[in-house]
Each structure stands twice: as structure tokens, then as C-alpha cells.
Amino acid sequence: MSETPAENAAAEPEEDIFEQKAVRLAKRERLIAERDTPAGGAYPVSVPVTTTIGALRAQYGDLEAGAETGQTASVAGRVVFSRNTGKLCFASLQAGDGSRIQAMVSLANVGDDSLARWKELVDLGDHVAVTGEIVSSRRGELSIMVSDWQIAAKAVLPLPNLYNDLNEETRVRQRYLDLIVREQARTTVVARAKANASLRATFAEHDFLEVETPMLQVQPGGATARPFITHSNAFDTELYMRIAPELYLKRAVVGGIDRVFEINRNFRNEGADSTHSPEFAMLEAYQAYTDYNGIADLTQELIQKAAVAVAGSTTVTWADGTEYDLGGEWDRVSMYPSLSEAAGVEVTPQTSMDELLALAERSGVEVPPHVTHGKLVEELWEHFVKAHLTRPTFVMDFPVDTSPLVREHRSIPGVVEKWDLYVRGFELATGYSELVDPVIQRERFVEQAALADRGDDEAMRIDEDFLRALEHGMPPTGGMGMGIDRLLMAITGLGIRETILFPLVK
């Protein structure tokens, strides 16, 4: 006998699930034995399908109660509700996009044997194909009055209870169940696809080319992060999973691809929390003959158009119901002046390390190991300023010693032309006026190597091949990087594990 949703729960005792699985496996064996009959088989290679459930709802969704169309259709879907009442059985079939249609299996239309087989063999979770007239039930539910049906795939495990929320662990570990059960999970997948399509369309409007760069690298670079290490048997050498595509995309600019971008997977061997994942999707883009101001304008356009593509407006509604305005011109503040104002004491690139350490001690700011002047300034800025940013804000002009790939500021000594974009209280993107002088770039790499020698696992290494590329001449360039997962967080209000379809979990 088929279960109803109320009788089928994700949190059922293990023995109950085992018993249900045994019953379903027995039904599978019966279907396998009947595979040579017209309606037999538990996993047929194909079933008759002439349209989709969504298409039927779009065409016939406004039928009056009790209406008959005289039109026949064949559709398939997963059984998510089942009620067997004597001579008439009802089932809700759900498509992958969440759209549903009612299947009505009656004695008058299918006969005794077919109706009995339906009652005996069809369970919640099964994929079923039905053929019949498109009608509206007496209660006004769009339906198929079934004349023929067939199992499309037999489910041997029960579905979770459709009326109870899945816990977070189940949602991220068994995303396939999350997609079946929860509308938000499906809409998040669609939102991500729409955002990526929008990003590509905006880049196309600006004549950018999309390229692909290596995910396995002989030397990691392009960011300060600890890499994942693997081994190549073919080359008998250590390789590193990409932490950023930056140095390869800059090689492309050297080669004459003046506007280039990549949407890629990056891997960083670091902590996981509500805004960080060891594996994540990243957008990086580089445009010759612009600077960090021009690339900030482009980044604002990319995000605002993505918001419109996903939410229909630059004012987005997060999962908790909060509205957030991504429209208009975004604020731009400078790091040192904003820190000075918030801390009540002037902080400049010339402020001594002793003064910074004293301010950190007075303010209860933990000083990380291997701290540099610039790193401590950034820690203090996060303590005093970050939490007070409400609107989308470009934080400009970072310390030079934390930004080894960035050009020095054209007029302010001791800082570089870099911004970080903060939205919803987290860093969404970063942008530079790129450092293109190979001599200074080598000096910066040497400084990073010294940090690595002192035990900084995230420091960069000297990349001779990249330096050789720069020595052939790279034009003035603006570059940016943005987490795709975080873009979805900004638009939807969800955590990072919700925006990744299959997140890495322990």
C-alpha cells in the first residue's frame, strides 16, 4: 500500500526505513519479472512523454473546475502525494522544477488489473509516466485522467516528510533530497544559473573574452592562501590546486587579450564557515587601459545586473524577508581615514608599529602571528569599521605590504590602489590597479618569500615564469575578483553552504 506524506518521515527509526526498503525491493523484483510486458520493468530505458508538467500548467492552469479539454498528453514526474480510495486513486506528480499535476487513476478508465497494480506497486518517490486526458477535477485541480501508466523509476528508499523541514545537515549532505522537498533549494540553483548568465552577458556587452586557465599548477599564486597539494604520477612532481587564476589571466593580457575573464573553481586549504568554503567559484576579470576606479564601476554594473536577472530588481529580498538595496551609486571610503575616524586616533601608513600594537591592546584586537604593519591596520579596520557598513561600499587604498600584486597609489605614499567591496557585512569582491612593473613585482615577491621563510603559510612565492611574462610588457590594467557563491549570498541572503549545490562537508 502506498504511503501518504504524513506516514513517511525523514527522521523515521532506522528499522522502519529498513522495513520499507525491503517491501520496495520486493516490488522492484516483481516489476523486473514483468519487464517483458507492456507496462513492466522497474527502470525502463524510456517512457512516453509528449510534454512537461510545467508546460501543461502554463497552458491549462486556468481551467474551470470540472472542465474537460478532450486533449491527451503523456507526462512523467515523481510521486510526492498518493491517496487510494476504492475505485479512484489520486497522486501528485512533481517535475524537477517543482511544478505539479494531479494524476487520477480510476477503475472506469484503466480497468481492474491496472488499478490493482497501481495500488500495489506505486510508492511515494517513484517516477511514474501517465497518459490521459487533460482535465480539471471537481475541486479545480489540473489533472490527467489516466488511461495508461508505467513506472519510470522505482524508489527503494522513502522520501522525507514533505511537511517537515529538513535539518541543515541533511540539506547539505543529501542535496538531492533537498531539491526534491524544498522550493528554496530549487530556486537557489536557478538563481545561480541566472546570475552566471547575466555576468557573461554583461562581459559580452563590454567586449570581454572568456578563457580557461589551469586548475593544476606547478606553483600556486595570485592570492595569499594556503594551497592544496597533490602529486602527478606522469610528471613525478608535486602540483597545487589553483588558489586563483590571476597570474595566468595577466599572462593573457600580456599576450594581447586586453579584456579577459574567467569563472572558475578555486581551492584554498583554510577554514570553513558561513562565508568560506575550501572549494569555491570565483570570477576574475582584467581590463587593459583602466584602473581600480574603472574596474569598480564595472563590478557595480555586473552585480546590479545580476540582481535584476535573479530578483527582478536591484532591491533584493533575502531569505529572512529583509529587503536590501543594491541600486544606485555605491559608497567609496578610504581605509586609513575611515579607521582614524572610527578609532578616534589618527592612523596613517607612517604610524609606528608600537602605536598600532598599543591601539590593538587597548581595543582588545587579537594580533595574528607574523603580523606586518599593513596586516595589523587591516585587523584594526575590521574591528572598528567593518560592522558599521550597511550599504554596499568600496573600501579603497590598502596597505602596500598586504597587496603584493597591486600598483602603488599614484598620490598617497604607503598605500596601493586596491579596493574591497563589502556587502551584507562580508567581502564580496576585490579590485586593483594592477602592478605591471616587473622590477617592483620581483621585489614584492622577494618580500613575500621572506614572510614564508618566517613561517607564513599563506605568503606568495617567487614566480619566475610570471615575471618573465611581465618583462615582455603589460599595459596599464584594472583587475577584479569576486566570489560567485558570495554573490548569491548577497542577492539571496543565504549562507555559503546553501548557495553551493554540493558543498564540501566533513
Automatic annotation (TrEMBL):
GO terms under cellular component: cytosol
ATP-binding listed as a keyword: yes
Taxon lineage: Bacteria, Bacillati, Actinomycetota, Actinomycetes, Micrococcales
The name this protein goes by in its record: Lysine--tRNA ligase
Family (UniProt): Belongs to the class-II aminoacyl-tRNA synthetase family.
Localisation per UniProt entry: Cytoplasm
Reactions performed catalytically: tRNA(Lys) + L-lysine + ATP = L-lysyl-tRNA(Lys) + AMP + diphosphate
UniProt remark on cofactor binding: Binds 3 Mg(2+) ions per subunit.
Binding sites annotated in the UniProt record for Mg(2+) 2: 427
Binding annotation for Mg(2+) 1: 420, 427
Enzyme class at the top of the EC tree: ligase
Claim: Ligase is one of the keywords in the record: yes
Designated gene of the protein: lysS
Cofactor(s) this protein requires: Mg(2+)
GO molecular function, one term: ATP binding
Classification via SUPFAM superfamilies: Class II aaRS and biotin synthetases, Nucleic acid-binding proteins
EC numbers on record: 6.1.1.6
Keywords per UniProt: Aminoacyl-tRNA synthetase, ATP-binding, Cytoplasm, Ligase, Magnesium, Metal-binding, Nucleotide-binding, Protein biosynthesis
Subunit details: Homodimer.
GO BP annotations listed: lysyl-tRNA aminoacylation
UniProt xrefs under InterPro entries: Aa-tRNA-synt_II, aa-tRNA-synth_II, aa-tRNA-synth_II/BPL/LPL, Lys-tRNA-ligase_II, Lys-tRNA-ligase_II_N, Lys-tRNA-synth_II_C, NA-bd_OB-fold, NA-bd_OB_tRNA
Annotated CDD domains: LysRS_core (cd00775), LysRS_N (cd04322)
